[in-house]
């Protein structure tokens, strides 16, 4: 309520202030020459300032995103139109308004709707049988036009404006006015009609929606003109705006009789002769009106757009802007009559005419008529149809800010039809009536979005699995409430989407030695075991989840649960012996399954792609380089797959979204809603990522919490504002189906690594590589700070180092890939500009030079604190790095990490020295030195960022830990991941893996051979001493009576998965060969060889019978889906089985790549430190080349560039934070003291009530359940009301002790109560109970406004407002069916309250 009130008052006040200040500025033109020159300059600032700002914004949009340029004919037509409007505005401001009093001058502005009112009459949609309301609207439009057109002769020919005496009110001090009699010339025979018509010409585009012909012979192509102007809006304004400013200056000089331009308060201040006490007061008084005029226009324009975005248009946009003209008239009248406003703080005065009622009667009548005609002309502002958080370009015809008459500009440029434009695939809006509706980017609003939630799991703990399942059950709970609200109460939830959940278990099978069968491993069993615990935690009650359906698949198996809200939970169990394992291949698996098989039908996607490749024999990227014009590329891109899809399939792909999750993520349904809102707002957005919060315990988690916070606050926000986010983490991101299906994205993502760099770029950071492919294809990636998600972070030092060993090389590889193709990327992707590429290059360069920068900082600290020489300090600071570099190049990974931990502890002490050195540097230098400015600025940025994120402010406390470990994470970690580039294993969540008996035997044999070889190489063995020792030991044992024998100990031979996958396969091959040789040597009767885990019935494997998976139905995979999986496995997902020579080549190439990268990386850092220290040591000789003979230029340049980057991130944080606030405000309804409920309010209320109805039991953190929702034993009674309703059909009895699902059959069910989900059972039971109470009239909210006829046995007025009770009553009315045949009652569009 406060927000509504604030915006209404601000818009109304700013609009009135803008009008009044403009009139006062024009009053000085009628005075002496000096005053005229000063007021003309101030008016020119008010006119040209917004034009210059709009030109700058257009320039920035062109610079940071490619825009289409208009042709010469378009520019010529625009020049004519803009020149005409500019001339009309100058006539009004410099000739008409200075020639009359304020009341009549303000009244004249009511008549500037000439062209819009005319076009609204002659250009409209013609219907054969118009309704009565349409006929009335046509009559009102005609009347509005007649009033507008009649005002011209009334103003110019009549005595409305005539010569006469007027009073000029000027402020002498706070309480005293000076009245001066003026005689104003009223000769405006041609200026007034010309000005009114030319000014209104600027708003023609909003009032034409099609072609218009004159007597059927001459056709004016309004439709084509609109399309051309819309496509080149920014570039055309960039070309026309300077010409418009020049014309304004020229017309201002000519229309004021060549008066000189005099800048106010430009001379030297003389205290003895000046009437002001100081120069500041003189400047303030001289420019106060200009500041008010421009500032009020800015505030009014911004708040008006904000009101439209937040769905507050009727109250906070239409109402104040419609009331502004009469309110301004009232202020003028009251000021001239009572002089209640002080006038000493500004230049100029108030021109007041005759104030008697007789003199004002005709102007008042004219004002009422003109205001009504204006209100009719802009009546469309009361009926908005825009979506939440729509872009300004979609809300307004021209989004440019106008300082003169902001109320008329906003209302006349607010689109009459919000559906007439759409966002194309190139982040531009185009009209839907043009030829672009035939392309693949046309949109349909009636398609329900399809949400696929896809989580990849591997070796998560029970706590992590439970956390993920709770999030999924919450999503199912909210989705069920939305679905039931639409089905039972006949409303349409705009945030509804179809939901389906898929979990992909990687490496899910292991061989059970007891039965020699492959069964799901311990992690799958753990997942099944914690299913019901997670469901009970969300549903808040005892609940039983039915056993899953079990399906055998070509890749392993599938378990299908039906969640309490009837959402399907598909758990895919991958067998690494049948399908390629690792996360990227799991993503390829579900992407092709959901977007290929489910959307296109099996192999159709690949067939389409193969046909296109055979026809073209050239890649899409090369097609873009073939000299085609940018305009043709932007309008009809070569989409090999999309061009072969029918429109329905493409629209479904555009509205299909994949929510990627990790196996330990925790999120709320509101976060998913915010991500989906980003997708709906901009169809060009291919992916959106949320705000990731690391959780866990320990110093490493604290470090990451600060790192994640600062990274999201600054870096992610800067990427979102200035370009695109470069990486959407797979733990919580939303991808658009059509973006993934685009050329060179999904198909390229399935590329098998064949080179050494592929293993780093493709396998180590699959999420970043997928985002790189999408960016190179032209899609935008956004960041939504309001979509929070929690994920477990590495808690130990070695886990953290191994995680960053994967992430850091992949980040550098993908960044280099993106920067190397920057020309193509900036040409294709409108959201990535050359300055943004330069910004990313600076960040990458600072990342590369980070180790040397930290070393230089430590060197300076040694020099300041320990008083060592420069080179001695440098050698002391670089010594640990050299030692650790040698360790990483010669020792195993575990020793490398252990050494890093020890050196980190040493570096902590060194950072304390660095801190003291920094303090000494700050104290010894002045506060204007670069070091002091940078450090104080960086601290202020972090502090302000924390204040703007109050919920995460505590993360700043961990900044001290981050600072102490800077050398470890910027030097040691860099050395570690560079020296381990050849290690492409996963590194985290690895556990010992059980081997088969044959593999154990083979491993024992190989270990024994290694031991013997090792012993054979020892000195003792070569001398024969080892043999003597063994014989002596056996002799002693025999003397003691101990039998010397081989004791067989059952040991579990284990090895980590990533390091032994290839070894296991070699062992299994050798074991199979040994088995075959043994069987052949024994001359067995059977020649068949039975492999490990062989299943006699593949459709019903052994693990189906395990008790933990219950007695759920066993399903057979459809033949078409089976063929699809076999095709996919054969083409893309078959387990990798490379030959030894190729493996050896890759191993050598990785080692060579590591050596080259390490050498180049460290040589760059070494040279940087040497050059910097050399410049510092030669300070005396190079003093003249230092900046202001004090600061070393190279270090100052690096510091300045980094400071500029941080400053840009700081500014972008403010912009993004404000956008996040608006996004959250648009999804929040403030209903305080609100008596009227819109349909949107009603839908939100119904969905919330549906959640309450399906709740199993009240939760501690929720409101108590209304007593009317409780079950009772009330019997049915006859309803004696005027309307008769049917009850819902009776439901089967639900057990009291638990709300478990009824037993399901093996066949499909349709509308059967035995297949009703649990939450729906609870919902329908309570709804049926409410129907009984409704008939009895005992509901708390059942009442009439007539107190004598109120049927109420008990009420709850203290708990629920009257508005909620009325909406609740309306809600339950919709749940009945009337006795009107088989037809249902029509849905209401608006609630009558």
UniProtKB/TrEMBL annotation:
UniProt entry keywords in alphabetical sequence: Glycosyltransferase, Membrane, Signal, Transferase, Transmembrane, Transmembrane helix
Pfam families recorded: Chitin_synth_2
Documented EC number(s): 2.4.1.16
Localization (cell): Membrane
Compositionally biased intervals (Basic residues): 1301-1310
Region (Disordered) location: 1064-1096, 1257-1315
UniProt biased composition (Acidic residues): 1260-1275
Signal sequence interval, chain numbering: 1-17
Listed transmembrane segments: 41-60, 72-96, 135-157, 194-215, 236-255, 285-305, 317-340, 360-383, 836-859, 871-889, 901-923, 955-978, 1157-1175, 1196-1215
Record protein name field: chitin synthase
Species of the source: Tegillarca granosa
């Amino acid at each position: 309520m406060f927000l509504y009130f604030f915006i209404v008052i601000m818009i109304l006040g700013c609009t009135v202030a803008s009008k009044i200040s403009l009139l006062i500025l024009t009053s000085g033109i009628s005075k002496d020459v000096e005053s005229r020159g000063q007021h003309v300059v101030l008016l020119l600032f008010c006119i040209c300032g917004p034009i210059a700002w709009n030109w700058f914004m257009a320039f920035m949009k062109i610079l940071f995103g490619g825009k289409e340029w208009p042709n010469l004919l378009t520019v010529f037509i625009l020049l004519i139109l803009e020149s005409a409007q500019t001339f009309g505005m100058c006539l009004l401001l410099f000739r008409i308004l200075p020639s009359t009093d304020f009341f009549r001058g303000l009244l004249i502005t009511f008549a500037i709707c000439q062209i819009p009112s005319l076009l609204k009459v002659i250009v409209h949609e013609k219907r054969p049988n118009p309704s009565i309301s349409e006929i009335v609207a046509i009559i009102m439009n005609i009347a509005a036009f007649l009033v507008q057109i009649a005002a011209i002769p009334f103003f110019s020919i009549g005595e409305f404006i005539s010569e006469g005496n007027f009073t000029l009110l000027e402020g002498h001090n706070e309480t005293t006015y000076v009245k001066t009699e003026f005689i104003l010339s009223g000769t405006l025979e041609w200026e007034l009609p010309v000005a009114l018509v030319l000014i209104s010409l600027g708003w023609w585009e909003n009032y034409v929606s099609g072609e218009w012909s004159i007597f059927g012979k001459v056709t004016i192509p309004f439709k084509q003109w609109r399309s051309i102007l819309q496509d080149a809006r920014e570039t055309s304004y960039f070309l026309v705006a300077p010409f418009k400013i020049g014309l304004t200056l020229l017309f201002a000089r000519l229309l004021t009789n060549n008066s000189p331009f005099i800048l106010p308060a430009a001379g030297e201040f003389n205290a003895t002769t000046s009437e002001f006490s100081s120069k500041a007061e003189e400047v303030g008084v001289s420019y106060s009106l200009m500041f008010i005029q421009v500032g009020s226009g800015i505030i009014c324009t911004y708040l008006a757009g904000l009101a439209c975005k937040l769905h507050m248009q009727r109250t906070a946009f239409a109402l104040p802007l419609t009331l502004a003209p009469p309110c301004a008239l009232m202020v003028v009248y009251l000021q001239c009559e009572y002089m209640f406003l002080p006038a000493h703080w500004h230049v100029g005065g108030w021109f007041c005419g005759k104030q008697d009622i007789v003199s004002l009667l005709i102007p008042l009548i004219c004002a009422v008529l003109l205001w009504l005609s204006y209100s009719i002309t802009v009546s469309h502002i009361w009926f908005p149809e825009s979506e939440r958080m729509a872009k300004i370009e979609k809300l307004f015809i021209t989004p440019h800010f106008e300082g003169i008459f902001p109320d008329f500009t906003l209302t006349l440029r607010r689109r009459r039809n919000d559906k007439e434009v759409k966002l194309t695939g190139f982040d531009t809006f185009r009209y839907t009536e043009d030829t672009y509706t035939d392309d693949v980017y046309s949109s349909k609003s009636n398609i329900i979005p399809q949400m696929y939630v896809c989580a990849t799991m591997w070796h998560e703990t029970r706590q992590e699995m439970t956390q993920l399942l709770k999030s999924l059950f919450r999503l199912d709970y909210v989705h069920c409430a939305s679905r039931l609200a639409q089905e039972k109460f006949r409303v349409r939830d705009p945030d509804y989407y179809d939901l389906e959940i898929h979990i992909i278990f990687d490496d899910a099978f292991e061989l059970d030695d007891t039965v020699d069968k492959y069964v799901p491993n311990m992690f799958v069993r753990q997942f099944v075991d914690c299913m019901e615990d997670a469901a009970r935690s969300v549903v808040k009650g005892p609940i039983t989840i039915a056993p899953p359906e079990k399906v055998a698949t070509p890749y392993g198996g599938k378990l299908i649960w039906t969640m309490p809200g009837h959402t399907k939970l598909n758990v895919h169990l991958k067998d690494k012996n049948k399908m390629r394992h690792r996360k990227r291949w799991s993503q390829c698996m579900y992407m092709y399954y959901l977007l290929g098989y489910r959307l296109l039908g099996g192999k159709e996607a690949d067939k389409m792609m193969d046909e296109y490749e055979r026809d073209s024999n050239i890649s899409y990227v090369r097609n873009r380089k073939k000299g085609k014009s940018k305009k043709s590329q932007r309008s009809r891109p070569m989409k090999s797959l999309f061009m072969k899809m029918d429109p329905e399939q493409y629209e479904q792909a555009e509205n299909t979204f994949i929510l990627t999750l990790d196996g330990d993520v925790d999120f709320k349904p509101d976060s998913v809603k915010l991500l989906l809102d980003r997708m709906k707002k901009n169809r060009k957005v291919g992916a959106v990522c949320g705000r990731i919060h690391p959780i866990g315990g320990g110093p490493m988690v604290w470090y990451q919490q600060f790192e994640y916070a600062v990274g999201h606050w600054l870096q992610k926000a800067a990427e979102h504002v200035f370009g695109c986010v470069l990486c959407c983490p797979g733990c919580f991101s939303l991808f658009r189906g059509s973006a993934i299906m685009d050329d060179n994205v999904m198909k390229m993502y399935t590329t098998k690594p064949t080179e050494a760099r592929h293993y780093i770029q493709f396998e180590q950071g699959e999420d970043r590589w997928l985002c790189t492919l999408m960016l190179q294809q032209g899609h935008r990636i956004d960041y939504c700070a309001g979509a929070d998600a929690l994920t477990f972070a590495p808690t130990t030092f070695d886990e953290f180092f191994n995680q960053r060993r994967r992430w850091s090389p992949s980040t550098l590889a993908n960044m280099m890939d993106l920067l190397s193709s920057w020309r193509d990327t900036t040409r294709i992707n409108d959201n990535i500009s050359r300055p943004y590429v330069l910004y990313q290059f600076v960040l990458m360069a600072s990342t590369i030079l980070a180790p040397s920068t930290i070393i230089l900082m430590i060197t300076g600290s040694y020099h300041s604190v320990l008083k060592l020489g420069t080179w001695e300090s440098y050698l002391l600071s670089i010594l640990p790095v050299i030692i650790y570099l040698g360790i990483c190049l010669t020792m195993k990974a575990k020793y490398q990490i252990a050494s890093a931990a020890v050196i980190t502890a040493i570096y902590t002490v060194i950072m304390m020295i660095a801190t003291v050195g920094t303090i000494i540097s700050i104290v010894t230098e002045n506060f204007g030195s670069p070091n002091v400015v940078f450090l104080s600025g960086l601290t202020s940025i972090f502090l302000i960022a924390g204040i703007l994120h109050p919920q995460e402010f505590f993360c700043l406390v961990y900044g001290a830990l981050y600072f102490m470990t800077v050398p470890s994470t910027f030097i040691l970690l860099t050395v570690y991941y560079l020296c381990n580039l050849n290690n492409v294993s996963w590194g985290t969540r690895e556990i010992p893996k059980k081997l088969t008996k044959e593999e154990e035997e083979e491993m024992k044999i190989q270990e024994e051979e290694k031991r013997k070889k090792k012993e054979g190489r020892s000195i003792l063995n070569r001398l024969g001493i080892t043999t003597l020792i063994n014989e002596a030991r056996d002799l002693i044992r025999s003397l003691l009576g101990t039998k010397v024998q081989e004791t067989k100990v059952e040991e579990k031979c284990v090895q980590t998965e990533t390091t032994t996958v290839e070894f296991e396969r070699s062992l299994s091959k050798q074991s199979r060969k040994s088995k075959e040789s043994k069987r052949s040597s024994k001359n067995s009767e059977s020649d068949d060889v039975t492999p490990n885990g062989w299943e006699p019935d593949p459709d019903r494997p052994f693990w189906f019978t395990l008790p933990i998976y219950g007695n759920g139905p066993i399903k057979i995979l459809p033949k078409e889906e089976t063929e699809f999986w076999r095709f996919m496995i054969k083409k893309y997902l078959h387990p990798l089985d490379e030959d030894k020579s190729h493996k050896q080549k890759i191993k050598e190439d990785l080692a060579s790549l590591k050596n080259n990268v390490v050498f180049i990386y460290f040589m760059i850092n070494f040279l940087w430190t040497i050059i910097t220290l050399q410049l510092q040591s030669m300070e005396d000789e190079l003093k003249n080349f230092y900046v202001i003979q004090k600061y070393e230029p190279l270090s100052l340049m690096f510091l300045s560039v980094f400071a500029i980057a941080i400053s840009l991130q700081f500014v972008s944080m403010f912009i993004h934070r404000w956008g996040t606030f608006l996004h959250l405000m648009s999804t929040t309804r403030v209903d305080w003291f609100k008596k009227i409920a819109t349909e949107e309010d009603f839908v939100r209320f119904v969905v919330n009530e549906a959640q309450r109805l399906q709740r199993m039991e009240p939760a501690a953190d929720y409101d108590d359940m209304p007593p009317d929702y409780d079950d009772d034993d009330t019997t049915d009674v006859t309803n004696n009301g005027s309307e008769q309703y049917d009850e819902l059909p009776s439901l089967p009895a639900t057990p009291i002790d638990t709300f478990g699902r009824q037993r399901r059959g093996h066949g499909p069910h349709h509308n059967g109560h035995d297949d009703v989900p649990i939450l729906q059972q609870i919902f329908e039971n309570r709804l049926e109970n409410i129907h009984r109470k409704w008939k009895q009239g005992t509901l708390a909210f059942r009442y009439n406004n007539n107190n004598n006829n109120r049927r109420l046995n008990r009420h709850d007025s203290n708990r629920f407002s009257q508005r909620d009770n009325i909406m609740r009553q309306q809600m339950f009315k919709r749940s009945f069916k009337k006795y009107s045949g088989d037809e249902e009652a029509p849905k209401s569009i608006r609630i009558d309250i």
